Amino acid sequence: MENRHELVVAARVTPATGAAERETVVRLAAAVQRRGRGSVGANKAYDAREFVAALRAPGLTLHIAQNTRGRASAIDGRTTRHPGYAVSQRIRKRVEEIFGWLKTVGLLRKTRHRGEAKVNWVFVFTTAVYNLIRIRTISAALT
User: Fold this and answer.
1) Is the confidence at residue 36, as pLDDT, over 70?
2) In whole angstroms, what is the distance from residue 12 CA to residue 49 CA?
3) What are the φ and ψ backbone dihedral angles of 64, each rounded to 5 degrees?
């Protein structure tokens, strides 16, 4: 999700494995970063040293919530001292609104297709529709 206008930047369906989400985030973030500067926001579950190192390598700005429950966080003061980090921590929760829309309006609560390729196609298509509706809403607010 892009923080300013809440548009979906990249979407992908992957098989449910223990590491699929983190691996996919690294791949999608690298693809987005190639187009220019980029940042990645995530919840506490993504506060892992290997994951943080993989995202810092291409020069991405990290806005990952710190997980300090009984351990040291991989996110240090280099990240948390910037005002953009605090703003991102408030805004990152809005990604759940996108998933809510996809499930209710986009009819993705229960997929009607089987197979990774078909489900991925429907998911990416539905996120594109979400972006079009969001752009219409933003344009109407500006006029």
Assistant:
1) no
2) 24
3) -95, 135
Q: How many residues does the chain have?
A: 143
Pairwise CA distance, residues 105 & 59, whole Å: 36
pLDDT tens digit sequence for 86-131: 888 888 788 889 999 999 999 999 988 999 999 999 999 999 999 9
| Residue recorded with tokens 């993705």 | 108
Q: In terms of DSSP H, where are the helices of 64-107?
A: 77-80, 83-91, 95-104
- The pLDDT confidence band at residue 35, using thresholds 50, 70 and 90, is low
Query: Is the distance from CB of 116 to CB of 13 less than 8 angstroms?
Result: yes
Tokens of 30: 């690298």
Q: What is the distance between the alpha carbons of residues 14 and 23, in angstroms, rounded to a whole number?
A: 10
For residue 39, which phi and psi values (nearest 5 degrees)?
Answer: -140, 155
